[in-house]
């Protein structure tokens, strides 16, 4: 059988038969991959622990008729290890895996942007970044905004999402696509604070130095806006999102 090698993050697993598993991964070169891992549920398996969610691996796959088969596997980063003792980071990571699984829908097509974004976000959750630790909820909000943007759902934060009027704008509507002017705002639109607008822009652009002095109240305000935006634009709400500890 022909084979190929790729780097990937394990998103989820399903039991198959008595000792196998179906592994869903987001890879660097081939986007989403669903592959069978033979015998990984046996205690004698050599790489069963390497194929758990959050694992960043370098694997060799054999091309199969319906599903590919994991032939070899090496761990690059065990992201799940530091998250196991940090509940806020773990729940944020679960949302990231589910989001990547939901947004990358076509198997076998490259999704390099989503792959790099997921690896970078998991690294920031589990290990300190060059500019110090960041709140897990803030890392998650940035990931969600940027991941949705890569998928074509970028929120408008400077111009009216409905008529294109330029700012400054005061209203935010998930169903309208982000910022809206007073003439276009639908019923139930939110009116974020000035600090919340600034934080959303920083999280979307990755401008982390400007987030250092943000208050917990502003973080909570933005988290609510981001959650509403995500749940509106995905066909079904993220199951793991209500479990996130944003304290």
Largest beta-sheet characterization? 5 strands, mixed, barrel
CATH superfamily of the largest domain: Recombination protein O, C-terminal domain
Q: Supply the CATH architecture of the largest domain.
A: Up-down Bundle
Total separate domains = 2
Strand content: 15-25%
Count of β-strands? 7
CATH uppermost class of the largest domain: Mainly Alpha
Could you list the spans in which at least 5 consecutive residues all have pLDDT below 50?
A: none
Helix content: 25-40%
What is the CATH topology classification name of the largest domain?
A: de novo design (two linked rop proteins)
Summarize the structure.
Involved in DNA repair and RecF pathway recombination. Keywords: DNA damage, DNA recombination, DNA repair. The chain has 247 residues and is an alpha+beta fold.
Could you please describe the fold and organization of this structure?
With 247 residues, this protein is of the alpha+beta class. It folds into 2 domains: 3-79, OB fold (Dihydrolipoamide Acetyltransferase, E2P) (Beta Barrel), CATH 2.40.50.140; 86-243, Recombination protein O, C-terminal domain (de novo design (two linked rop proteins)). The chain has helices at residues 80-83, 87-103, 112-126, 136-150, 194-205, 216-233, and strands at 3-16, 20-27, 31-37, 55-62, 68-78, 171-173, 178-180. It has a 5-stranded mixed barrel. Strand 6 (171-173) and strand 7 (178-180) form a beta hairpin. Helix 2 (87-103) runs antiparallel to helix 3 (112-126), helix 3 runs antiparallel to helix 4 (136-150) and helix 5 (194-205) crosses helix 6 (216-233). The relative contact order is 0.12.
